[in-house]
Specification:
Blueprint lengths: L3 E6 L10 E5 L3 E5 L4 E9 H12 L6 E6 L4 E9 L3 E4 L2 E10 L5
Antiparallel strand pairs: 1-2, 1-5, 3-4, 4-8, 5-6, 6-8, 7-8
């Protein structure tokens, strides 16, 4: 799991492991869009993209999601959206999601 990105829906859920998606870093590219936003692009075989799309497609905007990269600890985000799936080459597709850093205001 050290080279993987792990997404968990609904922070604090007793059943959070049922809402888990683990993806190898070889299929992921990160891009900071704005100060608090993170765009994560996935480029992978069709079956993997289908699983990723299914995981994020029914998320509500601003739904809490945590992201853990290479077992470095979870960071809390809000889900902001998903792009359409693009065909890149035979058997490979791409899609992106946007996450917004969750901040506590004092």
């Amino acid at each position: 799991m050290a080279d993987n990105f792990v997404f968990r829906r609904g922070t604090g859920s007793k059943q959070k492991d049922k809402n888990l998606l683990e993806i190898s870093e070889e299929f992921i590219a990160l891009q900071n869009q704005r100060e608090d936003a993170l765009v994560i692009s996935f480029m992978a075989p069709v079956d993997d993209i289908t699983n990723i799309h299914d995981y994020f497609d029914n998320m509500e905007e601003l739904e809490p999601v945590t992201l853990e990269i290479a077992e470095a600890g979870e960071v809390e985000y809000y889900f902001r959206g998903i792009s359409p799936v693009e065909d890149i080459e035979d058997g490979v597709q791409k899609l992106s999601i946007t996450l917004q850093l969750r901040r506590e205001f004092l």
